[in-house]
Amino acid sequence: MDVRIGIQNSPRELGFESSQTAAEIEQAVAAALSGQSALLKLADEKGSVYVIPAAALAYVEIGSEESRRIGFVA
């Protein structure tokens, strides 16, 4: 799952591939934004964990679950 996170007052976005499903990511973001959790914690495919304060979230983009293509794409 491709995830992009915008952080307030930061010119760059945080982007990574996650092994979590779209529903799991959406649930974690909703919990952080509703105040149930002060932090948004997501893990990528390599095992790294990203912890972002909920107050600093600008946007979260959850991409499609797409398998990697082999070869050249025109």
Structure description:
It is a single chain. The chain has 74 residues and is of the alpha+beta class. It has a single domain, classed as SH3 type barrels (Roll), CATH 2.30.30. 18% of the residues lie in helices and 36% in strands. It has 1 helix and 5 strands, in the order ββαβββ. The strands form 2 sheets. The protein has a 3-stranded antiparallel beta sheet with strand order 2-1-5, with helices on one face. A two-stranded antiparallel ribbon has the order 3-4. Strand 1 (2-7) and strand 2 (13-17) form a beta hairpin. The relative contact order is 0.29.
Strand and helix layout:
Elements: E1 2-7, E2 13-17, H1 22-34, E3 39-43, E4 49-53, E5 57-62
Antiparallel strand pairs: 1-2, 1-5, 3-4
InterPro entries: DUF3107 (IPR021456)
Organism: Agromyces agglutinans
Protein name: DUF3107 family protein
